[in-house]
Amino acid sequence: MEDFEKKLSIADSMETEERANENCSGSSSSSSIKDNKIPDLLRRFLDIQERRAQAYAKLKKGFSDYMVSGGELAYQQLCNEITVEFNDCSKQVLEMESLFLNPDYCRADLAQLLRAVQTQEKEKLHLTAKIQVLKKAGRPSERLVNHENCKFKKPMEHECVHLHEITEAAGTEEAEADAEYDNALNEAIRGVQDAVTTINEHLEEVRYEIEALEAQ
User: How far apart are CA 129 and CA 207, in angstroms?
Assistant: First the structure.
């Protein structure tokens, strides 16, 4: 699970912004193309965001099942499926960005809006992976003790090498470790919530743009 963040990825491109002025400068775009095709492209984008939401729901359920059953193989397969889904969604959005920067559209504002969503989606995915890694590890004080190095005199009796740590280790160290864990988990959760809020605000902008174009 430590490599979980490597299992989930989202495509990213920093090239579209650099092409914005180059593609749009000196070009005159057709209003009919804008009026007829832009709303359809934006609806496709909203559909992609719905796919992402469904993928997150599937990932959340899969992780919950994994925490209960410990089925590593099933969860690995799920991670692979989700990775493919996220990357496909991101690829399609990047293609839309390029279209909006095309001289036929010349809508750098919409390309930047989609880019903003991509950025938040990337952060959301990163923090979601972090949350799952933390939850898998558990709070330091609640983690199971490994007895591999203990000496067993009888099948049900052993000399626990952890006994010294349990009885003499300073309680403040454990409390600090728990506090650090809790802070990291809560910070990641807040980060996901902030990303979701920002994404939803951008989606409202997309819906408003669709309405405005169709009202013309």
Answer: 29
In 3-state terms, what secondary structure has residue 158? Answer: strand
**pLDDT tens column, 34-90:** 667 899 999 999 999 999 999 999 999 999 999 999 888 999 999 999 999 999 999
Helix 16-24 crosses helix 108-137 at what angle (to 10 degrees)? 170
Name 159's bridge partners: 151
Q: Cα angle at 181 between 175 and 185, to 5 degrees?
A: 145
Token pair for residue 161? 């090498």
**What CA–CA distance (Å, rounded) separates 51 from 142?**
36
Give me the sign of the Cα torsion angle 85, 89, 94, 99. positive
Alpha-carbon distance of 107 to 35, in angstroms, equals 12
